């Protein structure tokens, strides 16, 4: 049973979510006793990136009609290349929006928001997050299946294989795009996508008020990090909801998560415990977050963070 995966890229570079989907596809292939074929559109990154996460074959498509995302065109192109029973997609906005179209074109079942490898592939039996993350549903899908992997849930797990690439063509043209992109304007240049970030500096109610976020942004800027927050902070309006991480917010899995003035409630941990290294700064030595931390500093954020900033500046030769 060949396993296919859509390796999403942006501006030619593979997205972290795309690599995670490849890693998930490899886990499916291990259950199925088969290999992974990755589909890549207009990627300039080396295919080595995909072999590293378990793709034995990479189908590379160069097609100007796929330069801008369009759900119809992407679903058509992926459907033309799939020659197997399982297709894995990340659950990015783009991939999640063409997954239903793809499942229609392939006459396949659609299983969204999976976090773990399936326990069986025929039928495809897997647990998925349901009810806005409040429950786990186990489903079995017979026949072909399109699967979307919840971002930052499975993890970008390395599983290197020897691979090869092949340039392939699809029949998609500009006429297949239902939506034409007329122009792109970014709201904030330089902002780092929280879900893709390798370092995240996050803060909670311990910061006392929105006026104190300057030092959080400064530290994040110095580290090349994205900023995040606990839920109450977003609920009160101190920070935008897009920054809220946790069970009801975004799930993230950066290499480094720095939590400042956050207690570490189970609902917060649910969205960040996939992080490789967790650093906690909290004035209360009994804060539950310390139990999940790799490194902890018991101290007042208003003293510790400025000193951290100073040290990072020194390391970067800025002070
Ligand atoms: C159904 C449900 C879903 C939820 N989903 C989420 C979610 O997705 N994400 C989420 O974050 N929460 C979620 N929550 C809320 C969660 O239970 C906690 O209430 C919340 O995470 C607490 O936020 P906090 O740590 O910022 O605030 P607090 O619990 O008030 O903690 C503040 C922390 O700051 C420390 N502190 C205070 N002053 C300082 C200082 N000067 N320096 C350093 N440390 C200091 C304190 O010791 C304390 O540990 C959910 C709750 C429910 C019921």
UniProtKB/TrEMBL annotation:
One of its GO terms (molecular function) is electron transfer activity. It comes from the Bacteria. Keywords: Electron transport, FAD, Flavoprotein, Transport. Its cofactor is FAD. InterPro entries: DHS-like_NAD/FAD-binding_dom, ETF_a/b_N, ETF_a/FixB, ETF_asu_C, Rossmann-like_a/b/a_fold. FAD binds at residues 205, 261-268, 282. Transmembrane segments: none annotated. SUPFAM superfamilies: Adenine nucleotide alpha hydrolases-like, DHS-like NAD/FAD-binding domain. The keyword Transport applies. Residues 3-186 form the Electron transfer flavoprotein alpha/beta-subunit N-terminal domain. GO terms for biological process: fatty acid beta-oxidation using acyl-CoA dehydrogenase. Belongs to the ETF alpha-subunit/FixB family. This is Electron transfer flavoprotein subunit alpha/FixB family protein. It comes from Faecalibacter rhinopitheci.
């Amino acid at each position: 049973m060949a396993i296919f995966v859509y390796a999403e890229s942006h501006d030619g570079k593979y997205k972290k979510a795309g690599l995670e989907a490849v890693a998930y596809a490899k886990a499916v292939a291990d259950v199925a006793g088969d290999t992974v074929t990755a589909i890549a559109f207009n990627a300039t990154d080396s295919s080595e990136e995909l072999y590293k996460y378990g793709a034995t074959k990479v189908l590379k498509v160069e097609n100007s009609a796929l330069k801008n995302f369009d759900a119809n065109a992407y679903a058509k192109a992926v459907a033309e290349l799939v020659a197997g029973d399982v297709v894995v997609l990340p659950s990015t906005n783009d991939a999640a929006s063409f997954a239903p179209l793809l499942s229609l074109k392939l006459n396949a079942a659609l299983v969204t928001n999976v976090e773990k490898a399936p326990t069986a592939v025929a039928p495809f039996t897997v647990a998925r997050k349901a009810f806005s993350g409040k429950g786990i549903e186990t489903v079995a899908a017979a026949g072909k299946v399109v699967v979307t992997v919840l971002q930052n849930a499975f993890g970008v797990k390395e599983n290197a294989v020897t691979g090869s690439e092949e340039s392939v063509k699809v029949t998609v043209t500009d006429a297949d795009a239902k939506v034409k992109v007329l122009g792109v304007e970014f709201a904030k240049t330089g902002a780092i996508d929280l879900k893709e970030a390798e370092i995240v500096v996050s803060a909670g109610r311990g910061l006392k008020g929105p006026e104190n976020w300057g030092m959080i942004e400064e530290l994040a800027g110095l580290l090349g990090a994205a900023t995040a927050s606990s839920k109450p902070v977003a609920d009160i309006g101190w920070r935008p909801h897009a920054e809220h991480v946790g069970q009801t917010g975004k799930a993230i899995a950066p290499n480094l998560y720095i939590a400042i003035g956050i207690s570490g409630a189970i609902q917060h941990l649910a969205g960040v415990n996939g992080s490789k290294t967790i650093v906690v700064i909290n004035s209360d030595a009994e804060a539950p977050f310390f139990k999940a931390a790799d490194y902890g500093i018991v101290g007042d954020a208003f003293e510790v963070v400025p000193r951290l900033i100073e040290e990072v500046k020194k390391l970067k030769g800025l002070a």
